[in-house]
Amino acid sequence: MGRAVTHRPLHLRPSSVALVAAGGAVGTAAREGATLAFPDPGHFPGTLLLVNVLGAFALGALLEVLLRLGPDAGRRRTVRLAFGTGLLGGFTTYSAFAVGTVELLQQGHLWLGLLNALGTVVLGAAATFAGIIAAGTLVRRRGEGAAAT
User: Fold this and answer.
1) Whether pLDDT at 104 is above 60
2) Which residues, in sequence order, are CB contacts of 113 under 8 Å at separation 6+?
3) What is the chain's mean pLDDT, rounded?
4) How many CB atoms lie under 10 A from the CB of residue 57?
């Protein structure tokens, strides 16, 4: 009798970890590049807020496209891990957002801290939803265009 084949969970596979790590390194470097290229003139971390909102939009769009293309397997899984979890996970940052908010509050900038916290969460959620809608519309239009030809 043969042994039962056991599969490692996705998060324990070296290939999956490598995809996320490589994507994360690129995303983190891109975020750092953005914050260095566009330094905030005042106390408010506007560049980081913009990075997080853009990343939320891109992640919503990416995941919607991948979902519409089929099951999370093969190339779609590779793209999701490398670009979604890795690159966009490294590009956006909850930790820097949280630290920036705490620093604003500790420095006595109550309204800026609240604006940063609420703005990041609300705008991020709205951007994710907008990314999903935009990608869904684009995929539908491309499908209709392909069917018409």
Assistant:
1) yes
2) 101, 102, 104, 105
3) 92
4) 22
Mean pLDDT of 142-146: 76
Q: Stretch 125-133: mean pLDDT, rounded? A: 98
The Cα–Cα gap between 113 and 106 comes to 9
The confidence score (pLDDT) of residue 76 equals 95
* Mean pLDDT, range 75-80, rounded to an integer: 96
Q: Which residue in this structure is represented by tokens 């390194």?
A: 25
How many whole angstroms separate alpha carbon 42 and alpha carbon 99? 16
Q: For residue 126, what pLDDT is reported? A: 98
User: Is the separation of the CB atoms in 27 and 86 below 8 Å?
Assistant: yes
**Amino acid sitting at position 25:** A
> Which tokens in the block code for residue 64?
């919607």
| Number of DSSP helices (H) and strands (E) in the chain, helices first | 6, 0
What is the maximum alpha-carbon separation in the chain? 70
Write a three-state SS string for 15-79: HHHHHHHHHHHHHHHHHHHHHHHCCCCCCCCHHHHHHHHHHHHHHHHHHHHHHHHCCCCHHHHHH
